[in-house]
Specification:
Blueprint: E1 29-37, H1 42-45, E2 50-55, H2 68-72, E3 77-79, H3 81-93, E4 99-102, H4 108-117, E5 124-128, H5 134-140, E6 146-149, H6 156-163, H7 168-179, E7 185-187, E8 190-200, H8 206-219, E9 224-228, H9 249-261, E10 267-269
Parallel strand pairs: 2-4, 4-5, 5-6, 6-8, 8-9, 9-10
Antiparallel strand pairs: 1-2, 1-3, 7-8
Bound molecules: iron/sulfur cluster (SF4).
C-alpha cells in the first residue's frame, strides 16, 4: 500500500502504517464480527445464511448508520492477509452460501492479498456504500461475484447533511454504473453472480428516492433493485429531528409505487416490519456470531 493512501474519494493521504486514515482504516484490516447472516435478500442468505464479515471503519460515515459503533469506532481485531484467508475458509466450512464483505472498500489491497492466498469456492459478495473510486473497484473486480451496492443519496445537500460529503452521488454514480453491468446468474433460487442495488428510504427524503430511481432506470442495466424500508433511528442523530422516527407506510408506498410504475421487473421489496433493532447484529458480543 502506498504510504499516502488515496484509495477512496477522500484521498486523505494517511500513512496507515503509522495512524488510521479518515476512514479509521489502518494497515491491517479490522474484523469486528462475522457469522452466518439470515436476513439479507433471500437469494443471498439462502438456506444456511450469508457468510458475512463486518469490517471496522468506513469512509462515508452516515450519521444514521445502523452499524454506527463499527463504522465510526475503532472496534475489532486486526487481521493480516493469512488470518483473513483463514476466515474465508472457516465460513466455507460452516456452510455459508457465500462470503459477504461488508463495507470493506477501505481494505481493497488487503482483500486482494487474502484472495491470492485463498480463493473461496462459494460466491464472494461485495457489500458497499458505493462512495468509491472506480479504479479501486476495477482492482478487486476479478475476485467478486456479486455486488451489493447501496445507492444512498442523489442530492448533494442531503448527502452533505448526513455524511459531510456533498460529492457522494458524483462518485456513487460511476461506481454503481460499473457494478450494475454484472449479469445475474441464479441456481435453485440462489444468486451466483450479479448485482443488487439497494436503496434505503429515509424520513422526509422520498423525492430524493424518486430521483435515484429515475437515474437507476436510465441505466437500463441487468442489475436488480432492492427497496428497503428498514430505516431505524440509530447513530449520532440528535441534530436531525427528522431522523428520529421510522419511515411511514405512506412514504414507503410512494417510493414503491413509483418504482413499480416504471415497469421495473427485477425488484426486491422489503417489508416495513423489517424496521426493527432485532435485525441489527449485536456488535458488543463475541466476534463469531451475529444475532
Ligand atoms: S481509504 Fe481511508 S486512508 Fe485511504 S484515502 Fe480513504 S479515508 Fe484515507
Amino acid at each position: 500500500m502506498s504510504q499516502q493512501c488515496t484509495l477512496c474519494p477522500l484521498e486523505c493521504g494517511a500513512d496507515r502504517k503509522k495512524h488510521p486514515g479518515a476512514c479509521g482504516g489502518e494497515d491491517a484490516v479490522r474484523i469486528v464480527k462475522y457469522g452466518l447472516h439470515p436476513y439479507e435478500e433471500p437469494c443471498i442468505s439462502g438456506k444456511n445464511g450469508s457468510g458475512t464479515i463486518f469490517f471496522g471503519g468506513c469512509a462515508l460515515r452516515c450519521a444514521f448508520c445502523q452499524n454506527f459503533e463499527i463504522s465510526h469506532g475503532q472496534l475489532g481485531r486486526r487481521a493480516d492477509a493469512a488470518a483473513l484467508a483463514a476466515l474465508f475458509a472457516e465460513l466455507e466450512e460452516r456452510g455459508a452460501e457465500n462470503i459477504n464483505l461488508v463495507t470493506a472498500a477501505h481494505y481493497i489491497p488487503q482483500l486482494i492479498q487474502a484472495f491470492r492466498l485463498h480463493r473461496p469456492k462459494i460466491p464472494v459478495v461485495y457489500n458497499t456504500h458505493s462512495y468509491e473510486k472506480t479504479d479501486a473497484l476495477q482492482a478487486i473486480d476479478p475476485y467478486i461475484d456479486i455486488y451489493l451496492p447501496d445507492l444512498k443519496f442523489y442530492s448533494p445537500d442531503i448527502s452533505a447533511r448526513y455524511t459531510g460529503k456533498s460529492d457522494y452521488f458524483r462518485f456513487a454514480r460511476e461506481a454503481v454504473r460499473f457494478m450494475a453491468q454484472r449479469e445475474a446468474v441464479f441456481e435453485n433460487g440462489k444468486m451466483l453472480r450479479g448485482c443488487i442495488v439497494r436503496h434505503l428510504v429515509l424520513p422526509l427524503c422520498t423525492n430524493d428516492s424518486l430521483r435515484l430511481i429515475d437515474w437507476f432506470s436510465s441505466l437500463q442495466s441487468p442489475a436488480y433493485f432492492s427497496l428497503m424500508g428498514q430505516y431505524t433511528p440509530c447513530g449520532d442523530i440528535a441534530r436531525f429531528p427528522e431522523l428520529q422516527r421510522r419511515i411511514t407506510p405512506r412514504e414507503y408506498k410512494k417510493v414503491r409505487d413509483y418504482l413499480l410504475d416504471r415497469g421495473a421487473e427485477h425488484v426486491f421489496l422489503q417489508q416495513l416490519s423489517a424496521a426493527d433493532e432485532r435485525f441489527i447484529p449485536d456488535f458488543s458480543s463475541d466476534t463469531d456470531t451475529l444475532f
